[in-house]
Amino acid sequence: MSKIAFGVWDGVVHDPQAEAEGAETRLSALTNFDEFDEGNGIRAFFGDRGFFVFDENVSLVDALYHYMNKAAEQSCGACTPCRMGTVLVRDALDKMRRGLDSPLDFDDIEMLGEQMRQTSLCGLGQTCAVALLDVIRNYRDKVETEIAHHRPIRAQHGMAYMTAPCIEACPSKINVPRYIDYIRDGRPERSLGVLLQKYPMAATCGRVCVRYCEMACRRKFVDEAVGIKTLKRFVADKQKGPQALKFTRDMIRKPLDDSMKIAVIGAGPAGVSCAYHLLLHGYQVDVFEKSDQAGGMAQIGIPSYRLPKDTLAMETDIIVELGGRFLFGQQLGRDFSIDELFTRGYKAVFLGLGCQEGTALGIEGESVARDGYFSGIEFLLKVHDHVDGIERLDMKGEVVVVGGGNVAMDCLRSAVRLGADNVHVIYRRTREDMPADEEEIVAAGAEDIHFHTLTNPTRLITENGKVTGVELVRMEQTEPDESGRRSVRPIPGSEFTLPCDTFIAAIGQQVEDGTLVEGDGIAFDKWRCVSADKGLATSRPGVFAGGDCVTGPSTLIYAMAAGLKAARNIDDWVQLGTQRFFKRSRMRDLISDNRFLASDVVEAPVRNAYRVHNPELDPELRKHMFGEVEQTICEKEAYAEAQRCMRCYRIYSVVTQHAIPEGAS
Amino acid sequence: MCTTDLAQLAARDPEAATISLTINKTACRAFPNETILSCARRHDIYIPTLCEMDDIDHTPGACRICMVDIVQAGRDKHQIASACDTPVREGMNVATRTREVRDIQKLQVELLMADHLQDCATCVRHGDCELQDLAQFVGLTENRFFDRERTLAREVDTSSPALIRDMQRCVRCQRCVAVCRHHQQVDALAMEGTGLDRLVTLRHGTDQLNSTCVTCGQCVLVCPTGALGERDECERALDFICDPEITTVVQFAPAVRVAFGEEFGMPAGTNVQGHIITACKKIGVDIVLDTNFAADVVIMEEGTELLTRLKDRSRPTFTSCCPAWINFAEIHYPEILPLLSSTKSPQQVLSTIAKTYLPEIHGVKPENIRVISIMPCTAKKDEAVRPQLTMDGAPETDVVLTTREFARLLRREGIDLKDLEPSAFDDPYMSEFSGAGAIFGTTGGVMEAAVRTIYSVVNSKELDQIELEQLRGFEGVRAATVDLGGPFGEVKVAMVHGLGDTRALVEKVLAGETDFDFIEVMACPGGCVDGGGSLRSKKAYLPLAIARRDTIYNVDRKANVRQSHNNQQVKTLYRDFLEAPNSETAHTLLHTHYTDRRREMQQTVKDVWDDITMSSVVY
């Protein structure tokens, strides 16, 4: 760890003496600050709460110029102090670093900095002058000395990065405040444009995303998180009629020649996202899909009352509009092998295989159950066929679903719609522990589903292979362990049985057996997932993998993020034979490792304005149909919701010893 | 939609003000979730503001002028907060006049001035500008940051015949966007750009002329500076007035006479009809006519047309006298156009008659006549240049001056309206009006006037109760049933004002969910009495409409003749010139047609990507 020469953080001036004596200070707890990239030490760091310098020779004036330049570039211009202040200060610092006379002296800069900090509307203006003020107020002599000789200051290396808690929380790093700004500005099409920079499936994501962004949203310290997903759906659902944005080939950055073709295996969210970005990079892309429709788990695993099939199809069709091909009915391991793909001239392969095989519970009686037993995913496939009119599925009697995730909720709510008399959910922990979205659990409750929490199946009762009942045991919570986590254990003697006509085990999925074989040269990890490095490269050169087949069953947004990342690295690998350093990613690590974006509370009072919710169909009506339950919000609601975003932007910058390598954008 | 929330606030139970706090050491009671600004105002404590506008519920927190010092209960720390959007808290201490707060406010105004064009003497708002007031309040003494070059680089959009958007004077308060988006619901405006480039722009198209704007001018009424205004045509008007070869005819709208005195310090709602006539004569206008007269003619035409449509079972019929409504229908709902009355507006009816009938009786050459109309309306400027409304290639109406321009014109001529002796109309052909024509200036007025006449046409006798109270409310949409008798029986009529409510009603009509026979539309909330061309009132929107409207109803009440068809001059016009309502001559001269001007925006993702600014740009 490099030694801090001086600095200020959260208003506390760093005292090297105290640190030398071993005192625990905020700055001594910094991690991951040794070098930015290999052999490139970090000389100084500037953030929203202060700054610290590791190398005494760093020019503060130059560093602050770059920091304030970022602020001026990113200022939205809505409020007076930030709009004008960032520019005035930036221009003055620019004059100073060039050795010219500045129209403003440090007193003026301090006055403007204080005005920005105290009176700006949003997080950007409120925080972008903090480091500046810390420098002027504590190290005025240093900056005065730097400009005393009126000579240009030698340029320094580094980078500045602007982000927000919601952006960092999003696997795809969607610039959330920006797309909300565009709604507020009256430019929903640009808002969609922001989303489309990162993935093609905005309407899908606007319906089924698990919303890591909203969990990080600081508005919840005031009232409730901003309805980020609801707004996303609003802008994506504007894509209809003659006003819909057209996807045209001129979106492609630079078309490559025909030999530059890539195979994507699996047309799920990871594969579609990867194909989209490869197409935009100029490649020819063929997407191999074992079924006859695109969408993967979003297609078969998410019931149409949450995600209508045509909404999804409209978004997967973007691949075709951009010149990609879907090759349906093509299953890896059955119809082709990875070797064959390379022989056919594909330069690289992306595996987006998914996890489509249900995990068994491993209880007594499970292996002999032939009739009335499904894994969660098997059942959802049947539901999908029912909705598509391929094969009718009628249910009656008692349906028991085991599991507490979104797949379990989907099974439950589908069973209700298919006519089951009673639908039960069995979950071994408490309702609060259920990993499913809260909204899904509430919606299931509204549809008269019986919840049996702290309950676990122990035996499946069958007659000639037909499920007739299930034996269950009550569970109890143990005392919290050292980490505060409670486990559960069965209560001896509490066994009871529940009559059951259909039993659905929805506790997890894994990569389908037989897809990848030994000869493919792809290594698996201990959870039987495809093994891939940080850059999503597998053990076989030229083969990349992402989505559920790498992570295990996860979320749509993680899969789409993996598709983008893989496309970037495939491009690097094909063009350069190596993966380049990605500086924004490095900056994100620095921020998360040091918890810079930790949840600082909202200090000034903010007027309560509770979030809008998607209108929903009446539970009594929706129980009988697979039509979409949630509806799109109206224009007026969208404007009101967008107004709730507090724009918690923060800028972070580093000064480094050498130039930071330019990676893929 | 168009009424203010102030009444609601005043109506709140004082017992509900459960929060105690102090402002400048004065004990105050506040409602939960009320803002500091609102609480201060109720306690008569002034806090300077710029972007905020209470009666359209607009607090974007953009200008950051209204900063105050707060100390929250149980804390020592002073914080600076914006009064307009910071809620009160129990035990909070607010200080609005500390040295620090005053310095902050002063610096904020200086920063606002840094890219605001300050050629104040050339600005339409000079002397009537909220930014000037603000500079005085904060005691602005310095202007260190002004960059003229940067300011002059900004757009001035002169494409529209009606409105000028001068972004060199915009302070980004977003009031115009709010009124267009939330109240008129035309949503023609958007915010564009970031940082210093952030400005108001048109949501569709590149300039005002090619946008979805309907030029209702409500944005102009709320603009605190001279950034939004009408196209000033005083010079053209003076050219005509001062040309001895030209016979200038002035007409002025029903609402002008009740909204104009305010500019010269008379109480709101003063009827200055006689003063206007004197003023026109004084500056050299040859003939002064009354748009009210034309309103009576419009009723004859439109009423007759309505009866024909009722017979044909074609319904509903929409009125056609409001030009912003016509723009709205043509641009936003062209499918509704067949339902619009074909009768021209009073302005165009008067201009047409002035260039056909008047030359005959006065012995003037039609080509030497120029009609100048004074309107409380910006969209009338649009109407005047419609290609459908020309005679032999020349526009029927030559110049439209808004009420504001007319005030400027009088000042240029050294006239103070207060000092003038009122005079009467002296033209015996086109200046008499009935009470029915007079009430055209307020929402519900056209409908009431029409009902009086069609009842008489159908029943050959006058309606007993001619003041139709059920038509006189101020709600956004009002419906009533009128028994016409005869073969028509009961007809259902509706009146809507403000385009937000109009949009909702049009959607319903298109969806077949209404059973109205006749619908009056006025694009501006309140009707012409608060038209987009009327005088601006600082810091408030629509405060004067009610006073102006009362005067209009008084004009009707005191009128000798209260039905359009009983207007003697109208009778003479039909006898001597037009023959009968909806006659062939009347059709040729007094009716028009409409065109589909829908503007579809077709964009590609690439186009949008090229427009996206700031981070997250990958491609």
TrEMBL record, chain A:
Superkingdom assignment: Bacteria
Molecular-function annotations in GO: 4 iron, 4 sulfur cluster binding; oxidoreductase activity
Entries under Pfam families matching the protein: Fer4_20 (PF14691), NADH_4Fe-4S (PF10589), Pyr_redox_2 (PF07992)
Residue ranges occupied by any NADH-ubiquinone oxidoreductase 51kDa subunit iron-sulphur binding domain in the UniProt entry: 61-106
PANTHER family: GLUTAMATE SYNTHASE [NADPH] SMALL CHAIN, GLUTAMATE SYNTHASE [NADPH] SMALL CHAIN-RELATED
Protein name: Formate dehydrogenase beta subunit
Organism of derivation: Aliiruegeria lutimaris
Automatic annotation (TrEMBL), chain B:
PROSITE patterns registered for this protein in UniProt: 2FE2S_FER_2, 4FE4S_FER_1, 4FE4S_FER_2, 4FE4S_HC3
Transmembrane segments: none
Keywords, ordered alphabetically: 4Fe-4S, Iron, Iron-sulfur, Metal-binding, Repeat
Every 4Fe-4S His(Cys)3-ligated-type domain range: 100-139
4Fe-4S keyword on record: yes
4Fe-4S ferredoxin-type domain boundaries: 161-194, 202-233
Molecular function GO labels: 4 iron, 4 sulfur cluster binding; ferredoxin hydrogenase activity; iron ion binding
Pfam families noted in UniProt: Fe_hyd_lg_C, Fe_hyd_SSU, Fer2_4, Fer4_7, NADH-G_4Fe-4S_3
Alphabetical list of Gene3D superfamilies matching this protein: 3.10.20.740, 3.30.70.20, 3.40.50.1780, Fe-only Hydrogenase (Larger Subunit), Chain L, domain 3, Iron hydrogenase, small subunit
Statement: the UniProt record of this protein carries the keyword NADP: no
2Fe-2S ferredoxin-type domain location: 17-100
Record family assignment: Belongs to the complex I 75 kDa subunit family.
Listed name of the protein: Ferredoxin hydrogenase gamma subunit
Organism name: Aliiruegeria lutimaris
Lineage: Bacteria, Pseudomonadati, Pseudomonadota, Alphaproteobacteria, Rhodobacterales
